[in-house]
Design brief:
Structural class: alpha+beta
Length: 460
């Protein structure tokens, strides 16, 4: 057994230890070679309280071993069954989230450079086979690899030093070095899908094709290289971005690239994991439909825009109403979470965000009953230069996406729209040679709104 640790010399590594043979082999190896590699080794243990006294006994075993061998240890426990019920998620997801939270807590407490888990070659093969059986795309067959995870903006490196080591090599190391360990009896139950693959499918495959796990490992690394190429191409083309609460996928006829962007939007940006290949295919075809066509799925709404697909979560329209005078008094510079300010000098606006729009208007022409609100039925707008239109028709002419229309701040007097903030003022409040007081609306540019690149997580 020769774990790959060349990139982790002089680091502080915290090992996730269950007490099983794999994690104990990893912890023992790191402790054994700590001086040679100039490593600082510490450990963490997670008790999911799923197996009652058995899991508590495993934690006690890990405590004893670490105490005898001078390894600093942090232990955590959580009733994951109760947690899953509380959060209305599956037990496996609740347990995984618990473990990941523990990783961040331990890394911060120990000031560790990374967390090491004991996933090995056979685990990698099981993962690849499982994902293939579920119909995963290329990204799902990369297998197990070093990665970064994110928790509220904090990032943490996860390393898998044993991923190229087989179960047989680990068993040999355990025997040769007389490393103690405990067995989790649930690992021997074929009731779980992954266990069934481990106990039945993979051994049968290894019997039919010797060293199949090693071949699957090579395949997963080639898949990872191809996946990296696709992601690099996505970044070059800037296929996926977001604007506020919307994910925007630019039109792309290359199915593999578009589909990957769609999966990232649905899975990473909106956290929807139960998408289907049919839904991704529908999104792909939507980009060739007429503008305005939409598709509802998973509590999301996808809509065809001019040269893109926008995806938003279903939500209530903004109903906030604010007297226009409050903006004049300087009491407000936000409307429904968006920057909005009325200023007397546009050269030094208080709002310095990119892609703002500044509209000049005659302050005295604004009625005293004016309010700031969003779109309502019956709204009409006298365009700058003349010509009255229904506001919805005006939005259509200006190619304002449906996803933005319900949140654009409007200055209104009854059904008369005096300003579509961030777009245009009404002819009724334009500056003329009779204007005495000129003011400026400083707001996001809603006519050119797509701005921020989506930070795509590159993890499992």
């Amino acid at each position: 057994m020769k774990p790959e640790l060349s990139g982790y010399k002089n680091k502080k590594i915290c090992v996730a230890v269950s007490g099983g043979r794999d994690s104990m082999a990893l912890l023992h190896y790191l402790c054994n070679y700590a001086n040679e590699l100039n490593l600082t080794v510490c450990a963490l243990n997670c008790d999911h309280q799923i197996r009652g006294e058995h899991s508590a006994a495993d934690t006690a075993f890990v405590k004893e071993w670490c105490g005898q061998n001078g390894v600093p240890l942090l232990t955590y426990k959580c009733d994951c069954v109760a947690l899953a019920q509380q959060l209305c998620v599956g037990l496996e997801e609740a347990a995984r989230n618990f473990r990941r939270n523990c990783y961040f807590l331990a890394a911060e407490e120990f000031k560790a450079d990374c967390i090491a888990t004991a996933h090995h070659l056979n685990d990698n093969a099981e993962t690849v086979l499982f994902n293939i059986a579920r119909g995963a795309a290329l990204g799902g067959v990369k297998g197990i690899y070093d990665t970064e995870i994110n928790n509220n903006g904090k990032r943490l490196k996860l390393i898998r030093p044993l991923v190229a080591c087989s179960r047989a090599e680990i068993n040999e190391y355990i025997t040769s070095n007389k490393v103690p360990y405990v067995d989790d009896e649930s690992n021997f139950s074929a009731d779980y899908t992954r266990n069934y693959i481990r106990l039945n499918v993979l051994p049968a495959l290894e019997k039919a094709v010797p060293e199949a796990s090693k071949a699957i490992y090579r395949f997963s690394r080639l898949a990872a290289e191809d996946e990296a190429f696709i992601r690099e191409e996505m970044q070059k083309r800037k296929l996926l971005c977001f604007d506020g609460g919307a994910a925007i996928i630019k039109k792309c006829e290359t199915r593999a690239l578009f589909s990957r962007a769609a999966v990232d939007a649905v899975k990473i940006y909106f956290g929807k994991k139960d998408y289907t290949s049919e839904q991704i295919e529908t999104l792909y075809n939507l980009q060739f439909a007429e503008s305005g066509k939409s598709f509802n799925f998973l509590g999301l709404t996808a809509q065809k825009e001019q040269d893109a697909i926008s995806i938003i979560a279903e939500s209530k329209n903004v109903t906030e109403v604010v007297p226009f005078a409050e903006y004049l008094c300087g009491n407000r510079d936000i409307f429904a979470g968006q920057p909005l300010k009325i200023v007397s000098d546009y050269k030094q606006p208080a709002i310095t965000e990119p892609q703002i729009k500044i509209l000049k208007f005659d302050l005295c022409a604004v009625p005293k009953d004016a309010i700031v609100r969003t779109l309502r039925g019956g709204d009409k707008f006298v365009k700058f230069g003349g010509g009255t239109k229904k506001l919805c028709d005006y939005f259509t002419d200006k190619k304002i996406p449906q996803r933005l229309r319900a949140k654009i701040p409007l200055i209104a007097s009854g059904a008369d729209i005096l300003a579509v903030c961030g777009v245009e003022i009404s002819d009724k409040i334009k500056v003329t040679d009779k204007t005495k007081t000129i003011s400026y609306i400083v707001c996001k540019d809603y006519a050119n709104s797509v701005d921020n690149t989506l930070a795509v997580e590159k993890n499992d």
